[in-house]
Here is the input.
Amino acid sequence: VLGVFGVGFVPGGLLCFESKTNSADYHDDMNDNTFYEWFVKTLPLLKDNAIIVMDNASYHSVKKDKIPVVAWKKQAIIDWLESKGEVVTHPVVKNDLIKKVKKIKKQYDKYIIDEYAKENNKIILRLPPYHCKLAWSSVKNYVRNHNNTYKLKDVLELLKKGVDHVTPEMWTNFVEHVKKVEEEFWDIEHVTDSVMDENPEEVERHILTVGTGDTSSSDFD
Here is the structure.
């Protein structure tokens, strides 16, 4: 985990540890508790009103309060609503309970990390899913290209050097690349909107809807 500030990494913001599992996926060792501890430690290194760009990894996205979904048992949904001061009149069906949840969920659907940052005069800006992490890719490439011994202590030193290797100029290039990609995206969207405005019937004939047709609990998540 790396803290990023301005056009460089935050001094003292590196978290690196040895994987203790046999899994090929190192993310198994990274959990919300480990991340939260690092976040609390690193946050004071940032200035007030700093904007923290965060992706949507599961350990970044732990909710303060679980929100009921259709898969919940009916009584559990009732208990949740009543704990929020909502009055539930019996008899009641689950669908009506979910409707009540949706009316008030916004005020409770919050992330632990986001709220902690807000309490400490920082702002979390969440990225869309699968957003590329250019700086981190550069660090990993540095380690990969210079790793000759494959010893853990040497990899750790390469990691630190890889972080130092990311210069302000590289950060500027990363930012410019992202801006270019975003501009291209909005240009494409503008063209699409223009086509739809001019030929709505023709566009409708070529729309492909992908889905299973069933309603899952994620619809209410």
